[in-house]
Amino acid sequence: MHAWPASEVPALPGKGRDLRIHDTATGGRVTLDPGPVARIYVCGITPYDATHMGHAATYNAFDLVQRVWLDTKRQVHYVQNVTDVDDPLLERAIRDGKDWVELAEGETALFREDMTALRLLPPKHYIGAVEAIPGIVPLVERLRDAGAAYELEGDVYFSVESDPHFGEVSHYDAAAMKALSAERGGDPERPGKKNPLDPMLWMAAREGEPSWDGASLGRGRPGWHIECVAIALDHLGMGFDVQGGGSDLIFPHHEMGASHAQALTGEYPFAKAYVHAGMVALDGQKMSKSKGNLVFVSKLRRDGVDPAAIRLTLLAHHYRADWEWTDQVLQDAVERLGRWRAAVSRPDGPSADALVEEVREALANDLDAPAALAAVDRWAERQDADGGTDEAAPGLVSRTVDALLGVAL
User: Fold this and answer.
1) What would the pLDDT profile of 309-336 be if each residue is shown by its tens digit?
2) Domain holding 352: CATH number?
3) Which one of 141, 207, 263, 302 has the minimum C-beta count within 10 Å?
4) What secondary structure, in 3-state letters, does 304-366 show?
């Protein structure tokens, strides 16, 4: 599966700062110190209802992580999946009277278009669940043969008790885990499971549903969590720098994925930091596919909204915050974009050397994009009030906003 084209990232004078970011697993801020190549895995979409603003906010956050790392002169090895076969996708295809493959391919193509328009840097490896199945099957077999998984009526479940570190990503109690499991694709009430929280690794073929050869597992399809584990281990290995996604993935997805990988390899941790973006609401409720209260990037683009303004709307909110999409927050971003473009269109201006360092420091401080935007606002205000004589300043501001915030002025 191919990703989308990369926009050029301008080089800035000097060097960026190491990223200090909130780690869900420890509950505090950690300083990331990758080697020459920083490794990041961000969980991708299940391709229907793409790309809504919750998606966009999440991938915008991890685009900032990449840009901070690139500014430190590191390379970035970014991997993202597409869950192109799963119960919700199949259910949506039936509801809409579409072939599930056609639905997945169309929505993935739209997602690529939206990511390109928003100038989000693409992953080096963009892998679909279906194409990953040949690598998933041996992992499930290994877990089963090691006693970390068991069969139940043809399905294969992972035993959470096989990982001594289970629970160390979310730190939720058993009651919360059980409730979230039921809400987010698990089956804690199924009779015969060793532990209600045990997640499915391999679903035996169901009549009328797609299935693949699972070797000794029989025909079927993979569970959600093992998909990401197989892709991450294949392309990044254990102990990569950041596992990212929305806060709704903390449990069960990231908790279970970590345990799968740790049980498979005997190594710990799966990822050095678990980083999660907040949820976006509309009309007082979290945007969700089930509720249908979604704002789509593609719809805004068709209505003539500049993608740079959409991106500035996202950047105006701290990535970990839950916030609400309104017409006003978009209008504020449109006006900000206009002010910035007017400020950099002049032939000279106030020195921007300090601005570069302000934006760097803001982003290194747990991706504080609102502080970075405020710094650019202040430069634009000085430009509007007094101007300046530095002929290089407008160009430097444009390159800074482009390189670090992904916004083309």
Assistant:
1) 999 999 999 999 999 999 999 999 999 9
2) 1.20.120.640
3) 207
4) CCCHHHHHHHHHCCCCCCCEECCHHHHHHHHHHHHHHHHHHCCCCECCCHHHHHHHHHHHHEC
Strand order in the sheet with 37-42: 125-128, 75-82, 37-42, 240-246, 271-277
CB contact at 8 A, 299 and 56: no
**Start-to-end CA span in the chain (Å):** 31
> DSSP assignment, residue 28?
E
The DSSP letter of residue 52 is B
Q: What is the SS3 assignment for 155?
A: strand
3-state secondary structure of 119: coil
Tell me which residue range forms the domain holding 142.
20-277
The C-alpha angle with vertex 78 and arms to 74 and 79, in degrees rounded to 5, equals 160
Residue 41, domain member (yes or no): yes
Distance of alpha carbon 214 from its chain centroid, rounded?
29
Task: Say what angle helices 100-118 and 53-71 make with each other, to 10 degrees.
Answer: 50
Q: Rounded to whole angstroms, how far apart are CA atoms 92 and 154? A: 25
70-125 pLDDT per residue, tens: 999 999 999 999 999 999 999 999 999 999 999 999 999 999 999 999 999 999 99
**400, part of any domain:** yes
Q: How many CB atoms within 10 Å of residue 226?
A: 29
pTM exceeds 0.85 = yes
Q: Are 45 and 111 in contact (CB under 8 A)?
A: yes
Helix (H, G, I), strand (E, B) or coil at 41: strand
Instruction: Calculate the alpha carbon distances from 150 to 107, 217, 256 in Å.
Output: 35, 11, 16
